[in-house]
Amino acid sequence: MKKYVVIARFDDDTNQKMLSLRDKLMSKGYSVQEWPPHITLAAYENCDEESIKDWIRSFVKSHHEIEVGMNSITILPPSDEHTETAVLCFAPTHKKDFVDFYYQFHDRLDEYCTGIGYYYSKAFNNPIFHSSIGVFNVNCLQDVTNIIFSSDAFGSAKINALELYTYPMQLIERYELTNEHQIF
């Protein structure tokens, strides 16, 4: 069976700021992730695609756009065989509504968050909320952080959609969240 990933996508302004940062890093010769700017919500294995789609559709009907602060960065340190590299990420603020949003997404299908998906599951009980920037050689982290600090990528961001992908990256479907103040 395929592997699936559900990501939370940002508003256009945040997306453009993060893509601009990506361009700056690439112009300096750094390799960055090809995924669109996002926060990973879940990764599934051995789960029926239609079940995931049904759950996302249901979830977005009962949730609206949500603001998160992207005001700091975090480093996921070298581990296992990757002793020379670390993952540099934006660290979204742990506002209650964002944390609730994250955990509520795991109210269904969490038993399929296996393999790498385990680290996003309720069972793991210690998710690291993050928006990956890239994987960098540890000797380059100072230079990379200087580039990030000089960018305008920090600030308030709005999660305005969820997207379902196969892993590796192939978009299956996008699900728009409604604006909290939208009148029907």
Describe it:
- This is 2'-5' RNA ligase family protein.
- This protein has 184 residues and is α+β, with helices and mostly antiparallel strands.
- It has a single domain, classed as Cyclic phosphodiesterase (Cyclic Phosphodiesterase, Chain: A).
- The protein contains four helices and eight strands; from the N terminus they run E-H-E-H-E-E-E-H-E-H-E-E.
- The strands form two sheets. Strands 1, 2, 3, 7 and 8 form a five-stranded antiparallel beta sheet that branches. A three-stranded antiparallel beta sheet has the order 4-5-6, with no helix packed on it.
- A hairpin with an 8-residue loop joins strand 4 and strand 5.
- The chain is globular.
- The mean pLDDT is 90.
